[in-house]
Amino acid sequence: LIRRSESWVQQLGFFESVQVREMASELGSNRIDLEVEVVERHTRSLQVGAGFSSAESFLATAQVQENNLLGRGQNLSLNAMFSAVRTMFQVSFFEPHLYDSNVALQLDVFNRQLAYRDFEETRRGGSVSFGYRPFRQHEYWRGLSLRAGYQIQDVRAESLRGFDTPDTDGGLTSAITYGVSLDRRDDRLVTTSGYYVAIDNEVADAAFASDNEYYKVQGFARGYTHIDGLECGDGDTNARTSSTRRALCRWLRAWVLKANFELGYVGSLNPRRGVPRFERFYPGGPESVRGFELF
């Protein structure tokens, strides 16, 4: 129980290290006191980057993020990206315990532009979603989260070939979202082991005053592992154990391997129009399957 509590505190992502020590209690020999020692992690970050790629030419990114806003566990982030094929601005806010409850709140406001091969899209809008963890005290299922929300965005799609079709003219997208996820990562910010799986659904229908009508299902699975159990000979005084070997061993132990799997399906709720072109899946590009021609 003590080790489990120690692990749960580490999973918060706010501390570099967590140690729980057992001490004799003054209340009697059949009781113990627990001393918890933590090393707080820097939760505020500023990232600025620039680069060049064959897909997007020159690109620049900037991010300001606070993972423990005012010490309340809230997350606030501002993101911006510029490149030859996309421009993105986004502000996000996350409250893990709305009014000290088991309900979480996520707010997003965004403005995105993305150039495909045949058309260019612009999205402006926002979303609100709520999450609920029904088994917070369960050893295995405490990472299970149920989510539901609403998203509204104005989508403008302009054909780059000089003509527009019904599936590229854009319009208002008003959609409900819902899903379920299971988070078994050891640390949500600096993950070294565990996994994360999720299924998300999105439904945009005329009943919600949406011009674009479709349904979308997406599944995600991410796994993390690191090389553990290596004996690096840190306490070995044998001269045959070289410093180079120990350094190489410690370097291997610091590596974390990550595997990512995604699967999605989108269908139309309006047979006369079909799935809007800007809601379809495209291989290629910076956030899709590498090796394919861009979009």
The profile of the biggest β sheet is: 11 strands, antiparallel
The H-and-E topology, N to C, reads as HEEEEEEEEEEEEHE
Q: Order of strands across the biggest sheet?
A: 3-4-5-6-7-8-9-10-11-12-13
Poorly predicted ranges (pLDDT <50, ≥5 residues)?
A: none
Q: Give the % helix.
A: under 10%
Give the overall shape. Answer: globular
- Note the gap between the termini: 51 Å
Number of continuous helical runs: 2
> How many beta-strand runs?
13
Q: What is the radius of gyration?
A: 24 Å
What is the structural class? mainly beta
- What does the average pLDDT come to? 82
Proportion of residues in extended strands: over 45%
Please provide a brief summary of the model.
The protein is mainly β and 295 residues long. It has helices spanning 2-11, 243-253, and strands spanning 15-24, 32-40, 44-53, 57-69, 74-83, 86-95, 103-115, 119-132, 144-159, 171-183, 194-204, 214-226, 256-268.
How would you portray this structure in words?
- The chain is mainly beta and 295 residues long.
- The protein has helices spanning 2-11, 243-253, and strands spanning 15-24, 32-40, 44-53, 57-69, 74-83, 86-95, 103-115, 119-132, 144-159, 171-183, 194-204, 214-226, 256-268.
- It is globular and about 80 Å long.
- The relative contact order is 0.10.
- The mean pLDDT is 82.
What are the defining features of this structure?
eleven-stranded antiparallel β-sheet, single chain, 2 helices, mainly beta, 53% strand, 295 residues
Give the arrangement of secondary structure elements:
Elements: H1 2-11, E1 15-24, E2 32-40, E3 44-53, E4 57-69, E5 74-83, E6 86-95, E7 103-115, E8 119-132, E9 144-159, E10 171-183, E11 194-204, E12 214-226, H2 243-253, E13 256-268
